[in-house]
Design a protein that fits this description.
InterPro entries: RNA_pol_sigma-70_dom, RNA_pol_sigma-B/F/G, RNA_pol_sigma70, RNA_pol_sigma70_r2, RNA_pol_sigma70_r3, RNA_pol_sigma70_r4, RNA_pol_sigma_r2, RNA_pol_sigma_r3/r4-like. The protein has helices at residues 20-31, 35-44, 46-53, 63-80, 89-107, 115-135, 141-148, 152-161, 182-185, 193-206, 211-221, 227-234, 238-256, and strands at residues 6-7, 10-11, 171-173, 180-181. By secondary structure, the protein is mainly alpha-helical. It has a two-stranded antiparallel ribbon. The protein has a two-stranded antiparallel ribbon with strand order 3-4. Helix 4 packs across helix 5 and helix 6 (115-135) packs across helix 8 (152-161).
């Protein structure tokens, strides 16, 4: 981040950074109860928090809120990091901070998701972060499903359930004029204006038919019955069914065309 950026009262241009040896020593002292070392660790890793929350901007959440939640993740990482492991603190801290932000977004979503679905999604996120650390790449959902021994459909459903909803009026592009929104890119090929008009006309045309003609058309074209089956159910001959069916269709065509 370049220049001065104020977030939660923090001037990012003045943020400190820590060398790896200094980080390890401060972690040892902090976990032993040294509050001054803990404060220095927090200050020295605020840039790490800011780098993580960049992934979650643009979702309608206040950046200051995300920053504070990220700091909670940082505190957990500082308290739980094993200094005896031969890994950098950032390798452990980034997933912890990101996980805390994801939990915040999930729990504060406008759409309520069942507890069991949220728990499944949380397991998927944890597993994905662990596999990413192991493999140094983003695992596929198929790989995560195999690791958790869950059906792929369950994993997909859980991840969809915690996805942040997008407004139809969310701008996706602008060239200086009116912005292009999500709604502009969504097209319904099934419910067009022409089809709505045709449906209304057909409904009005059907209302002019007698009850027996309506029943014959419903049995023939909605239930897929043969004329012999319709004749047996209605209690008339097949010839009468054929005649009434043709007359009804002729009436509908005249009303629509």
């Amino acid at each position: 981040m370049q220049g001065k950026v104020e977030i939660c009262g923090v001037n990012t241009a003045h943020l400190k950074t820590l060398k790896n040896d200094e980080m390890v020593e401060l972690l040892r002292r902090s976990q032993a109860g040294d509050q001054a070392a803990r404060e220095r660790l927090i200050e020295g890793n605020l840039r790490l928090v800011l780098s993580v929350i960049q992934r979650f901007l643009g979702r309608g959440e206040n950046p200051d809120d995300l920053f504070q939640v990220g700091c909670v993740g940082l505190l957990k990482a500082i308290a739980n990091f094993d200094v005896n492991l031969n890994v950098r603190f950032s390798t452990y801290g980034v997933p912890m901070i990101a996980g805390e932000i994801r939990r915040y977004l999930r729990d504060n979503s406008a759409i309520r998701v069942s507890r069991s679905m949220r728990d499944t999604a949380y397991r998927v996120l944890q597993c994905r972060e662990a596999m990413q650390a192991e493999q140094s790449r983003e695992p596929t959902l198929e790989e995560v499903a195999r690791r958790l021994e869950l059906p792929l459909e369950t994993v997909n459903t859980a991840m969809d359930a915690i996805s942040v909803p997008v407004s139809l009026y969310e701008p996706v592009y602008t060239d200086g004029g009116d912005p292009l929104t999500v709604m502009d890119q969504v097209r319904d090929t099934k419910n067009t204006d022409e089809q709505w008009v045709e449906r209304i006309a057909l409904r009005e045309a059907i209302s002019t038919l007698g009850e027996r003609e309506k029943r014959i058309l419903a049995l023939r074209f909605f239930d897929g019955r043969t004329q012999m089956e319709v004749a047996s159910e209605v209690g008339i001959s097949q010839a009468q069914v054929s005649r009434l069916e043709k007359n009804a269709i002729r009436t509908l065509r005249k009303a629509i065309c």
